[in-house]
Amino acid sequence: MTKKILSSDITPESVYLNRRNIIKASGLIAGSAAVSPAAHAGIFGLFEDEVVVPEQAVYQPKPLTIAKKVPNNLSEVLTPESKVTSHNNFYEFGTDKTDPIENSKGFNPEPWSIRIDGEVENPRTFSMDEILKNHPIEERIYRLRCVEAWSMVIPWLGFSLADLIKKVNPTSKAKYVAFQTLYDPKQMPGQASRLGGGIPYPYVEGLTIAEAMHPLTLLSVGLYGKTLPAQNGAPIRLVVPWKYGFKSIKSIVKITLTEKEPPTTWQALASNEYGFYANVNPQVDHPRWSQATERRIADGFRAERIDTLMFNGYGDEVASLYKGMDLRKFY
Amino acid sequence: MVKTWVARHISTVKVMLHGAALLPLCWLAWQTFSQQLGGDPVQYLTHFTGKGALNLLFITLLISPVAKWIKWGFLLQTRRLLGLWVLAYALIHVGIFWLLDLAGRIDLFVEEVIKRPYITLGLIALLLLIALGITSANRIRRKMGRNWQKLHNWVYLIVLLVPIHYYWSVKSAVFEPTIYLIIAALLLLLRRQKLMAYIPKKIRPKVA
């Protein structure tokens, strides 16, 4: 049985009014570690760099006009907006899942532009306004599967990456597409301190040209009817629904078409754990997590364990991209 | 003066320690049920209780050297209650992993324990902790005689296993697990003479 879901059917966004006070209070507990040893940040919370963020986020998502809703046949329930925006892996704002919503309050994605260059006939820079004006916004409901074995179902707003790439005319040498996140330690505190988990910045990702031009590959500018909140990768991010979430790079400033396979952040850190392709594959385990099942974060308190689907359930559309490839070798 | 008070009121001190160990759990429960832990609290709950167990284990192992150093022998009486709290935190930690993360599925739990070295280590540490917890009653202690101390020296293995379990479990950000490993090593260094007995004579270094 399948049913269509509209974003209006879903629990409205709840506001965490109390959040800042709570974080302060947990810092207090960390400070009295001698008496209450099980403090939030461990006994070393004391030595964490203080991140100064405004009380209210400087950037508030704005409503977006949706030109087209792509019919969705997913039978799954959408992940509520409050969870999509409060459970994030965005190390630029801290490694805990609740860090990005808090530490991105000072992040301002306006104005913004993206540079597209490399193996293209017309390298150029697009302003965000121009991008929004020239691309009709579609709503697409995709599953998002994190390599850490949790998943969500998210109503993204955006357009096919292919539409943007076509505008710059790739040359015949363009075999790969490299992406880069903004590098701005003043706005992204994780890039300046241990808060960011000690990974190299700026974050970089990559796709093959065939993957990048695939109609499912989305450049997202919003979710749940509005522009992207800072913690979800404002103002523009990649969404590749058949790959593990770390491929879906956030806050993109640069797209470069290349002849050779570009380096990617997690692969550079631990190539035995993270491959270039990173297709969702229940048969190939990650050393730290079984990939056979996943926890679906939906509307309940407890996330259900469900079986993970090959290519995250998008096999019909994308399996042909990998015909003849050993997916154990090219993980 | 403080010393005399603590010595006379050791039961009060124990009650206070129970309260101090229980308080973070109440805090955690309150945060969870008032939905302040973000979209998916499972990872937070697992880390909080795991680190809590490790912090408490370090405190437990600090008691003897500190008591010896400041000559407050009566402090040794607090070790059992702290050790039992380590076990309680560890059981909650594993319980959350099994019931919330793995949705209570036994097949997944067994698979994870076998496949992931960091979880294997964690489970070995938990089984050892359970053995120490069960044998912590005075009656059993007396029955076990000299074997009791032999069994309870396994805590020195536990204090190494748990930080390694933590270190292996993280994707990046190894700073904090490294510090935990160093603290574990320091706690063992404080007991170097006692631990020497476990090293074969041939390769035993001469340390004063």
TrEMBL record, chain A:
PANTHER family registered for this protein in UniProt: PROTEIN-METHIONINE-SULFOXIDE REDUCTASE (PTHR43032), PROTEIN-METHIONINE-SULFOXIDE REDUCTASE CATALYTIC SUBUNIT MSRP (PTHR43032:SF3)
Keyword annotations from UniProtKB, A to Z: Metal-binding, Molybdenum, Oxidoreductase, Signal
Keyword Oxidoreductase: yes
UniProt organism field: Motilimonas cestriensis
GO MF assignments: oxidoreductase activity
Domain Oxidoreductase molybdopterin-binding: 107-266
Signal peptide, first to last residue: none
Enzyme class, broadest EC rank: oxidoreductase
Subunit record text: Heterodimer of a catalytic subunit (MsrP) and a heme-binding subunit (MsrQ).
Protein name as annotated: Protein-methionine-sulfoxide reductase catalytic subunit MsrP
The EC number(s) this enzyme carries: 1.8.5.-
CC cofactor: Mo-molybdopterin
UniProtKB/TrEMBL annotation, chain B:
Details of cofactor binding: Binds 1 FMN per subunit.
Superkingdom, natural source: Bacteria
InterPro entries: Fe3_Rdtase_TM_dom, MsrQ-like
Entry keyword annotation includes Kinase: no
Location of the Ferric oxidoreductase domain: 54-161
Membrane topology: Multi-pass membrane protein
Family to which the UniProt record says this protein belongs: Belongs to the MsrQ family.
Main function: Part of the MsrPQ system that repairs oxidized periplasmic proteins containing methionine sulfoxide residues (Met-O), using respiratory chain electrons. Thus protects these proteins from oxidative-stress damage caused by reactive species of oxygen and chlorine generated by the host defense mechanisms. MsrPQ is essential for the maintenance of envelope integrity under bleach stress, rescuing a wide series of structurally unrelated periplasmic proteins from methionine oxidation.
Name of the protein this chain belongs to: Protein-methionine-sulfoxide reductase heme-binding subunit MsrQ
Lineage, broadest ranks: Bacteria, Pseudomonadati, Pseudomonadota, Gammaproteobacteria, Alteromonadales
Gene name in the database record: msrQ
